[in-house]
Specification:
With 283 residues, this protein is α/β, with parallel strands linked by helices. 32% of the residues lie in helices and 24% in strands. Helix 2 links the parallel strand 5 (58-59) and strand 6 (83-84).
């Protein structure tokens, strides 16, 4: 079982020709309302690989909470530990341009009120991100270490300091930043020097850079034309965790992750792709 400890949001998405500049108003071609949040996205992607998934997060007591809960239960994700707090659920305001690039503003809502969860001892993988309080992330990774689970941290958004990373490093088996998050942590040399043994860096169209056990290699990207890059990193993390939970070696899991990330850019919104789409790209 994979325990995903993270955020859940309602996503309001506007599609535009070009992203607005400072003080600029632009007209959208279309809009949509869906669900997202890094935790929820990664949980859905992992579940679509056929792995049992438990989601540890928080929602408010507003109508968006019903959307979020339905998205999780419709895919048979265990939400028995879902926390419900008074107030609004998390909300993401997303703008996507004609070439698939995006800007995202996240209003944490209930995610900021999440308290430390007790991760089930059945979990073989614990996957966390940073759209929830850092103390909750620390507790989840520590719990994962206690129960002998593989612990994965996606340090997104880029809010983790190098000092925080050094404090967390002993409880992290795999760190999965993108290139911007890696830069915020001081680069590969700094991260590996902090005690991270396995560093997997997603670089979008440039592929994936992997450092593991003193060796490094590059995973080439799948050749696609992006429609919307929202959620691509989440799809990568969910697929990586799922394949590792299924017993795949790291290099194979990274290939699946790269295919999932590429497949995610072929659909609009943060909802992850179906497994059939990922398999086709990998093939």
């Amino acid at each position: 079982m994979i325990a995903v400890v993270g955020s859940a949001n309602a996503d309001l998405v506007a599609s535009v020709v070009g992203l607005p500049g400072r003080g600029e108003t632009v007209m959208a071609d279309r809009s949509s309302i869906g669900v997202g949040g890094k935790g929820l996205n990664q949980a859905l992607m992992a579940r679509r690989f056929g792995v049992d998934v438990a989601f540890f997060g928080a929602v408010g007591d507003d109508p968006y909470a019903d959307m979020i809960i339905s998205a999780l239960t419709d895919e048979s994700i265990d939400i028995s530990a879902l926390q419900v707090v008074s107030g609004p659920s998390g909300l993401a305001l997303i703008t996507v341009d004609a070439v698939g690039e995006n800007t995202i503003v996240v209003v944490p809502g209930a995610n900021a009120e999440m308290v430390e969860p007790l991760v089930d001892e059945r979990a073989s993988v614990v996957l966390a991100q940073l759209e929830i309080p850092l103390e909750v992330v620390k507790a989840a990774l520590r719990r994962g270490r206690e129960i002998g689970a593989l612990t994965i941290l996606n340090p997104a958004p880029a809010s983790l300091s190098a000092a925080d990373l050094r404090m967390l490093a002993a409880d992290i088996d795999i760190l999965v930043p993108n290139e911007h998050e890696l830069a915020a942590l001081g680069g590969s040399h700094e991260v590996l020097g902090a005690g991270i043994d396995t560093l997997v860096v997603t670089r979008g169209a440039a592929g994936v850079e992997v450092h593991h056990g003193g060796t490094s290699w590059q995973q080439e990207p799948c050749s696609v034309v992006a429609i919307d890059t929202t959620g691509a990193g989440d799809a990568f993390c969910g697929a990586l965790a799922a394949r590792l939970a299924l017993g795949s070696p790291l290099d194979e899991a990274v290939r699946w992750g790269a295919a999932a990330g590429a497949a995610a850019t072929q659909i609009t919104g943060a909802t992850p792709p179906q497994l059939t789409s990922v398999s086709q790209l990998l093939a």
